[in-house]
Amino acid sequence: MEYKILTNCRICKSPNLHKYLSLGEVPLANSLLNSPEQESKKYPIEVMLCLDCSLSQLSIVVDQKVMFSDYPYHSSVSQTFKDHCREMARTIKPMLNIPDRPYWMDNNIDWESKWFPTVLDIACNDGCLLREFLEEGYGVLGVDPAENFNSTDMLKKKLEDGTVEYTDVIPIHTMYWTKKNAEEVLTSMTRPNFGERRSLITAQNVLAHVDDLEDFLGGVHVALEGNGIFVAEFPYLPNLIENNQFDTIYHEHLSYFLLKPLIRLFKDNGLQIFKVEQYPIHGGSIRIYASKYAYDVQESVRQMLDFEEAKELYSIETYTRFGDRVLRVMNDLKMCLENIYESGKKVMAYGASAKGISLMNYSGIKREWIHAVVDDTQDKQGKFTPGTLIPIINSNGFKDEAAHFIILLAWNFRQELMAKCWWHSGYFIIPIPEVSVI
Ligand code: JHZ
After folding, report:
1. Nearest C-alpha to atom 3 of ligand 1 is from which residue?
2. Would the CB of 376 count as within 6 Å of ligand 1?
3. pTM listed for this prediction
């Protein structure tokens, strides 16, 4: 069975799950095709609200091996995201109480043998965040289930390309983050005397992808130092609802988080969320700080809970209204692209994002309406978008295509993408929150 049907809430186990959005059956967003003839398997997309703890979640869970073993998404393609990671490393540094000269510089760490990092990043992708921590002087380690991010393989490829840099020594292990795997990672490493130092575990854009959240947090619990800090970041559900970001709903994202259900989940797993911050990245994300240690809970936590209450995010009516707006945006996008096509004008897309691929499938966009999708990720180039079968190409020759319209499928990086298309004299189509042509 490639997917299972969810009958109880992922957090509180309640069977009171109310379906509020149904987007049909679509292919997996990151399963890009090698040829337009290749078939894509389709799976339903339905979102349900737990009427007891207010967790929004998909009605099915697709086998994680099918989705994550080979992952074409590379976080470091975006400069905006890299800048965000740099900010994160710098913001967190004072909380960690790390001496100016990191221990691994003095001890001349042997990267191949046993050592223990200060920063461990779960689902580290291509090491985008860890690179920033390394620059700040930390010992780092990444884990990620995608085989294409295994550090040994990446290093081999870079040695062949001649593009190897010192930051390529970031060790990345291929594994899912579970309690059992966390224990294994720990026993394979020695712990130098940390003294007053605090360890850090980070997890950007991965909590939403995890089915067994208890097992995941169990791993965090065993791996964290007594006073260590766990920092997780993910898109915040109120932004999705308020700004019609329904394209971020796809099979990989099993949960859509409010703070309230998370506080409960963390508490049940021996962790306390003591601070929360908001960032504009990916259409509006939150960064939560948690620990086994009882740090003082900051005012930001209470404020966010009050905000969720005031916005009626614990009430099903809010979600039903959102469903109506989604239908309108999908319809507007379809009409917009169909009209442009009929008028004989050329449309190119920028950013073969998972959300863009999902958006095109949800809205019924036809192959001939978009000439090609440009993407700067090497692993995506030469492939075809699942469902819509549009070729994904690199940016060489983008200018010469002289498109009348460029649709920004990665609208969250709107400024960066528009700056790269400085030569474009036509229009840009921004599909979210409302279809707009500028
Ligand atoms: P982007 C990802 O979703 C994946 P996606 C993941 N599932 C997740 O949780 C969310 O992020 C938060 C390209 N691009 O980041 C790169 C350029 O070509 O919006 C990407 O293919 N040139 C883990 O895939 C795409 O656009 C550029 O200059 O929806 C952006 O995808 C820039 C800036 C981007 O996320």
Report:
1. 354
2. yes
3. 0.94
